[in-house]
Amino acid sequence: MGLLPFYLFCGPELGEKNEAIEKLRIQARKKLGQLDEHLFYSFETPLSNVMDLLLNESLFASARFIVLNGAEQIKKKEDLELISSWIRSASNSVETASYFVLVTDENSCDKKLEDLIPKENKRVFWEMFENRKEQWVRDFFKKNGYLVSSEAVELILDLVENNTEALKTECSRFFLCFDKGHEITLENVHSLLTHNREESAFTLFDAMADDSANPKARLESSLEILNKLTLTKGASGVQLIAGLTYCFRRLQMWHEIFMKNPYPSDFDLKTKGFASKKAQSQYRKAASIWDSVDTSRICANLANTDMNLRQRGSFGEETALQLLIYSIVMKKGFPLQKWA
Fold first, then answer.
1. What is the side-by-side order of every strand in the sheet holding 6-10?
2. What is the pLDDT of residues 114-147, one digit of tens each?
3. Which segments in the chain show pLDDT lower than 70?
4. Closest CA to 104 of 171, 21, 164
5. Number of CB atoms found within 10 A of residue 232's CB
6. Cα distance between residue 54 and residue 169, in whole Å
7. Distances (CA, A) of 99 to 24, 67, 176
8. Contact by Cβ (8 Å): 269, 283
9. Among positive and negative, which fits the CA dihedral 183, 132, 167, 20?
10. Cβ–Cβ contacts within 10 Å for residue 72, how many?
11. Residue 182 in 3-state DSSP?
């Protein structure tokens, strides 16, 4: 058997991390055929359930591809032993039929867990430093045939989340509006990203986290954005939930920062990915609406909805997403049946 297909992807850089997971998924399909895919969150699904899937063959596919978010929470002796048992089982097989990918937004995990993972299969996806972000934006426009002014770059970085996934999404909007060779100006950014901004999971989160509006108004604006997104060609409920999960995971991190230190410095916030004033304002507002317990409950609700959509496909997707938004905005993540 070759290198054990057991991976650990750490760090706050969402875009590059997702690209690496997708490359692994493609690699697994080429090597093993049809995949039985699962996405779990450690705060919501016991590790024993995940390991049962890994240790048992799939009836409906030739291999399993399992991603477990929240790997920083795997510390208990019994959990580490479960993983060790799977490693021994997989190592004794001629060909393992499962890929197991651990993911965390932290920069590392428990050392005993990391010691179980092949060195070659561990990566940390660091957030871009301040001095890299401007050049990344310039290079992205350049390779797509556009110029961009310094003022435009500065405003883009102030408006957009500091990860390449969000930056790619927002910067790509300009390519639909201007011909190649055009120089993106400050006025273009104001027009497209502030006055005429297309909707995304990030703008949906903004609407849900608008603490200047009452819950009913936030629900109305959120459902309006959701409706626009569901009418977009190629829109995916699973992708939308992935974006919202990223936002609420970041909110969890925000709460953790302030639990450790009620008065963090700008440097403390920047090291955790809250460099821009916009991001700080956004998560400060969100934290005033959902506390740490609410946020964990919402993340679990997102995970459940994600799993249900993957099992059912597109059938009933719009209704499921509407109920999800209602639960988050009006019930702070509690399942609706709890309030029936």
1. 35-41, 63-69, 98-103, 6-10, 122-124
2. 999 999 999 998 877 767 888 999 999 999 999 9
3. 1-2, 57-61, 93-96, 130, 194-198, 233-235, 313-314, 337-340
4. 21
5. 11
6. 34
7. 9, 8, 37
8. no
9. positive
10. 18
11. coil
| CB 321, CB 237: distance < 8 Å | yes
Q: Which residue has the tokens 């409920």?
A: 237
- 180-201 confidence digits (pLDDT tens): 999 999 889 888 876 556 688 8
**Any alpha helices (H) in the chain, and if so which ranges?**
14-32, 47-55, 77-91, 111-114, 130-143, 150-159, 164-177, 186-189, 201-208, 215-230, 237-260, 266-271, 277-289, 292-312, 317-331
pLDDT score at 339: 43
* Two structure tokens written together for 8: 């650990």
Interior CA angle at 197 toward 191 and 198, to 5°?
140
CA distance 122 to 102: 10
Provide the 3-class DSSP secondary structure of residue 230.
Answer: helix
Helix (H) or strand (E) holding 36, with range, is strand 35-41
Residue 333 structure tokens: 């993540």
Q: Tokens at residue 54, please?
A: 């890994």
Cβ atoms < 10 Å from Cβ of 118: 13
Q: Would you state the structure tokens that stand for residue 35, as one six-digit string?
A: 């995949």
